[in-house]
Amino acid sequence: MSANIDIRDMVESDLEAVRSLYVRMYEEQRTFGMVMELNVEEVGDLLSAQLKSKLYLSKVAAAGEEIVGFGFGSLVRSPKKYRLLNPEMPFIGFIHDVYFVPERRGSGLAVRMVAELEREFAEQDIDYVELHVLGGNARGLRFWEASGYQDLLHVMYKRI
């Protein structure tokens, strides 16, 4: 099922389809404990800016003309208070989102998407990647652990 899916760079003509999937992703994330509200009116501008940035990796999974998923990563400057793993590379990789429509999950597409993001990071001499997973997203946690990612930190919040 994943063999007929092309993972490629996002292009401007993909923006509306990806915007729609992005909104779906956030609706689903609320069921996993996401407390931040998505500013739906700004999603298109956000995606457009990401597409133009040299620091962002913006990928889509396409089944012919239909976009069935996406993956976003970026290069993030490591804080100066930390001794860098590679002193000649001041950036780390950060995977922001990997999302597929429910009917495409479990097909190996996420593994392919992550491999593509990691390949592009490696091409830019990035050898350390972080990401966030919502605590209530058990399937996501299992996926990332099976992909070799390790638990690093717990983000906590309190409304005051």
TrEMBL record:
> Which CDD domains does the record match to this protein?
NAT_SF
Task: Please verify whether the record's keywords include DNA damage.
Answer: no
Q: Does the keyword Acyltransferase apply?
A: yes
Q: What class of enzyme is it?
A: transferase
Specify the N-acetyltransferase domain's residue ranges. 5-160
Task: Give the protein's recorded name.
Answer: GNAT family N-acetyltransferase
Record organism: Cohnella yongneupensis
Q: Which UniProt keywords apply?
A: Acyltransferase, Transferase
Annotated transmembrane regions: none
For this protein, the Enzyme Commission number is 2.3.-.-
Gene Ontology molecular function: any one = acyltransferase activity
